[in-house]
Amino acid sequence: QVQLVESGGGLVQAGGSLRLSCAASGRTFRSLAMGWFRQAPGKEREVVATIDWSGGRTYYADSVKGRFTISRDNAKNTMYLQMQSLKPEDTAVYYCAASRSPGLLPVQTALIPYWGQGTQVTVSS
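^ that's the sequence the OP posted. Answer follows.
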């Protein structure tokens, strides 16, 4: 029912910046709690940041606080992740995620029904 498409990944040097985008299909974007997860090879998928349907509440993993900013533009059906001061440990496939649950998106991946295909972010040192 909900289609999510990520873009904006790429290869950058440590200390650089990237901006990821997630476009959602349909006319129900305003009802979606959304967020970003990432997964490195051999590791479990982990939450990066989440944002509620209004954009008024956000959550950040400790590892990205002060460096990443999550936002959404409901008029454009798009969510963003601005990443600054990138580190090699940020290297991973980044996934857009969404749910119709109220409030913030849960951090447990099993509770999230909608996922994008992922976009690769590689940070060199």
